[in-house]
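tool=predict chain=A
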Amino acid sequence: MFDFFRRHTRVLQFLLVLLIFPSFVFFGIQGYSRFTGTDQQEIAKVAGQPITQGEFDAALRERIDRARRQMPTLDVKLFETPEMRAMALDSVIRDRLMLVVADKLHLVTTDDRLERLFKSEAEFAQLRNPDGSVNRDTLAAIGMTSEQFAERLRQDISRRQVMQALTGSVFAPAAAAAAALDAMYQQREVQVERFDAKDQLAKIAPTEAELEAYYKDPANAAQFQAPEEASIEYVVLDLDALRKGIVVSDDDLRKYYAENEKRYTSAEERRASHILVKADKDAPKAEREKARAKAETLLAEVRKSPDAFAELARKNSDDEGSATKGGDLDFFGRGAMVKPFEDAAFGLKQGETSGIVESDFGYHIIRVTGARGGEKKSFDAVKPELETEVRNQIAQKQFADAAVQFGDTVYEQPESLKPAADKWKLEIRKAAHVARAPAPPASGVLANPKFLEALFSSDSTRDKRNTKAIDIGANQLAAGRIVQHVPAHQLPFAQVKDKVRQQLATTQAAALANKLGTDRLAALR
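tool=predict ok
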């Protein structure tokens, strides 16, 4: 395997990028474990929270699907090595760890920022309607609701913030930086003399005997072969096809709506101003009592002159960030502030002022100046979304069950794909001139290396049996069988004579160019 990596450095670099950097939301969706029976075996823990085998498998599938989209000819067996699976697990742990850090730092993404990012970044263009709103049909096609998309996007933003904080803190010693800059700005003046093979072609005239000898040389035989090919039949079991056939009743939708009503209630937010009298939680008792007495005095002034709150905050608050704004903290949601502050703020109505609120930072006087959110969307308003989500979940479960049965059917009845096609109402597709190695314009299942490997196995080519069910990614399984097989064979000399002449002339011209260059180098020395 290490020999392969040495020969394919760029492929390895590509895989490392996929494994190291956090993936984004719309390639391989997770989250349906309660419907699909996902393996809950614990394989790692981050901050006390388990990562299950099912979560790891879903993350690995996500990266494999992303790799297939970016490099269709990639052999996905590279991901099946212990080394690659270990790297994938490290990546999942790193993703989870960044979310834990983001949570501890109270990194919060507002709805406004989420909307700005979605409307401005090119990577989301395929998910946007012309008016900038989310295209729910496109999300549904990848098995995701708008709420799931928004949550995954918030997580991605949090991971980016943590990554930026880490990468932005890298320190380079002055000597190392100077050496790097010096190498970057150095200049060299060189002279180059080229000995190009194409410039020597006019001097080359292979004889008939040389052409025949080159054609018959076993070392050159592969250049003049007709490649192995086959005419095939195949079927594809597709999650989308299952999804389209699912009908969901209103009763099922209302039940799901009732069970998940919190998801359809907008997040509650408060806008508040505060006056902070700082007192460290570990400060001596006398010092904290002195700070509280000051806060009590300020509270009395606020109650006496409510309109003077902003001015009192500017002059007296120890929170320098908000004091200059009259204590204003803008809108915030639950989880953004320390618990005592949050409980007090969300317990007040707009325009109300708290008593003294004690936190680890000291003593607060809080006034709520705005409130929004907390509205529940009606059933009718979210019915299309409910239908999409419930249909997706049912389809995921059906696909998991059907996948096992599909594999059994094509294996147990290996002489034909018709039983599987009839059972799941699948089209038996046909293709001619299918090669062992995918080549343009082949696409989809006909360009999938795992499918082609199974198709051209000895059982398939010799006995014309069905392949096993092959996972070709994107929630698709395929099985195929060879109808007619044509092995690779040597083409007649007369048919490939022009190609032989071109290949031999190119080889001789390259040898001549190399000799001229070698002689010139010897003369210069």
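The radius of gyration is 34 Å. The first helix runs from residue 2 to 7.
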